[in-house]
Amino acid sequence: MDAVNKVINEDLQKERDKCKFNVAELTAFLDGGDKFTQKRREKENRVFSIQGLRDAVPDEYMSHKERYENAVRKAVIMHQTLGTLEDKTLTEYETARLALRATTSSAIFKENSPLMLHYSMFANVIEGQGDEKQREYWLKKINNMEIIGTYAQTELGHGTFIRGLETTAEYDPKTEEFVLNSPKLTAYKWWPGGLAHTANHCVVMAHTYSQGKSCGIQPFMVQIRDLETNMPMKGVKLGEIGAKLGFNTVNNGFLGFENHRIPRDRMLMKNSQILKDGTFISSPNSKLTYGTMVYIRVSILGTMANTLGRAVTIATRYAAVRRQSQPKPNEPEPQILDYVTQQHKLFIGIASSHAYYISCFWLWTLYHRVTKELAVGNMDNLAELHALACCLKATTSADAAVLVERCRLACGGHGYMLSSNLPQIYANVTAANTYEGENTVMLLQTARALVKAGMQVAQGQKVSPSMAYLADQSKMAKWDSSVDGIVKGFQKVAAGKVAACLASLQRHTNNGQSAEDAWNLTSVQLVAASEAHARVILLSVFKSEMDVQTLTLSGETRTVLFQLVQLYTIYWALEKVGDLLLPTTTTTYSVSICDTAMRCDGWMDETSLFEKSTIQTSARTGIAGLVLSGLVYDSAVYPELVHQSLTSWPLQ
Ligand SMILES: CCCCCCCC/C=C\CCCCCCCCCCCC(=O)SCCNC(=O)CCNC(=O)[C@H](O)C(C)(C)COP(=O)(O)OP(=O)(O)OC[C@H]1O[C@@H](n2cnc3c(N)ncnc32)[C@H](O)[C@@H]1OP(=O)(O)O
Ligand SMILES: Cc1cc2nc3c(=O)[nH]c(=O)nc-3n(C[C@H](O)[C@H](O)[C@H](O)COP(=O)(O)OP(=O)(O)OC[C@H]3O[C@@H](n4cnc5c(N)ncnc54)[C@H](O)[C@@H]3O)c2cc1C
Predict the structure, then answer these.
(1) Where on the tree of life does the source sit, at the highest rank (predicted)?
(2) Model's pTM, two decimal places?
């Protein structure tokens, strides 16, 4: 086996030899510096050299129970190994970045670790929601694995709607305890990773009552299993929820309570408190309880970068070694990588993975700034962080799922084999469309902020920096196919969609609908506006961060990184060409669209991308030709792709 591994496929080697940039330099750039590449490699080499972490039998040939036990066995080895490699000299940012870039866990667990929630949400919720004493007490135990935990929020009846949670925690001042109950089946916690058999503690989000009054949803540290026997504690009912598309080694479980009592100090009291006598002291902002979700939503951008990066690496390598068909007689079958359609499928995956890394690091920086501000009672930027985290989590996970599936298809029949690992990678990414805030719901959260900002702009008020473009009333005199020009075009599209939403909300309320019904009737447009805003952020952050961060890199590496920026931007311009053209088309065309699904009447006049004179004097195909020819001639990166889109363009 080792001898086979050492022989590198000739075609693959040929492709590697063609590389025009310094791979080590690009790697260090993504890792955050040479020092970190070295640390990452050290970690990976150590983990991958452990024989016990290799599966004797492929996962898919094991029973469900065997798979779980195998995952627990490996999780223990991983913990012991990684514990010895921990570097206490690193900052929190550096540690997080290293954790994100290291591929150890995804290489060892095809369907993730049963300790996934312990490391991610459980540890973070204590950090973010516990008071000083609680943090000191619990974090030590968590880091030493004296306890194993998870995050239990979702219930059978409610996942998205947290305020609808039915698990109750009622304070009893006589015993200074909380009494936990699941009043009905729909109140059972449902989904938490590791809950089925692995965790012995969890943070439970419960509707809290004291002195007969509701104190909202609060987090509680609850011991659910005996540390010696691993049997459920008195008044605790536990089990596994069953087989899933993926995540089968994550051990997702259910949890119900029947008069289960916990001491008062098990309520995590950083933000809200219940005093011994039952007096409730409310958090300065009820949304602080949701802080852990914001943290994970930020991390998901990085997870998508990693996961998509793995899929597109597998598929691109395969495309280099796979030969198929014979377009030219008497010549060998070409590598499928040479087919432009294959490049079209794969290269956008490479560009997107880089765009997500860069956006994750950018958002992470904002997250830390806002966390520091919150620590001193400044909530000014919380809403902006939340709005960004929601739409970026949703858009990157949705795109990553499409692109991973494309990688799978790009490998033909072999991509359908579990041995390609692409089906499992797909199952992992598509899960992120649902967990940590279902994507449509997340986009609607950002839409709330966009609608508010739109109204503020209309009243001449200042809005948050990421939405400031909504206030820019200038028109684009002509199409500008530079990256900055396309970003500007996307800003106009997003602003147009927000304006259309405002008009629609207004129209529905004028027609006598309630605000809630008007929102629901406008929600397809609201989701579209939110996605458009996410595109503005992803495109502009990718470009502006690259402008700054690549200054010290060699010319070759900068060139290839900017080709990715250009490809990413042009790809999305072509994907959304309808949106970019919509304001430029004739009134007849826009009306026919508006009258059907989009109902965006009213926005042509107000938010046209081009000057009015251009619209009036340009025929529909003339404008289309102008835009597309701009892309054709200015796109050095991907002329074939643009040419293809041109030839299949329906408006010609
Ligand atoms: C270099 C750095 C890299 C970083 C990497 C770190 C390294 C780590 C490496 C790897 C980590 C891997 C991580 C991946 C592992 C992931 C595993 C996770 C498994 C899944 C776990 C789960 O799914 S847990 C359950 C998650 N559940 C949800 O997300 C539920 C979603 N629902 C909600 O959030 C809410 O119910 C809602 C937002 C949809 C609605 O809330 P509510 O009804 O209360 O609010 P309103 O709609 O009435 O809004 C009121 C008001 O509040 C605002 N708001 C809502 N939420 C927030 C918030 N979180 N923060 C701030 N503000 C919020 C809302 O917008 C409204 O504002 P208005 O001003 O009134 O409009
Ligand atoms: C792999 C995986 C791991 C998970 N791990 C955990 C965990 O460790 N801990 C935990 O607590 N939870 C966990 N979850 C649960 C997860 O957080 C929820 O599934 C998620 O929040 C969505 O909630 P739901 O399943 O109730 O979907 P629902 O909210 O019922 O959504 C169903 C549909 O209704 C739509 N919808 C719902 N509300 C609205 C609305 N207001 N407006 C418009 N449309 C709406 C949605 O868009 C969606 O199409 C996990 C889930 C998965 C898939």
Answers:
(1) Eukaryota
(2) 0.91
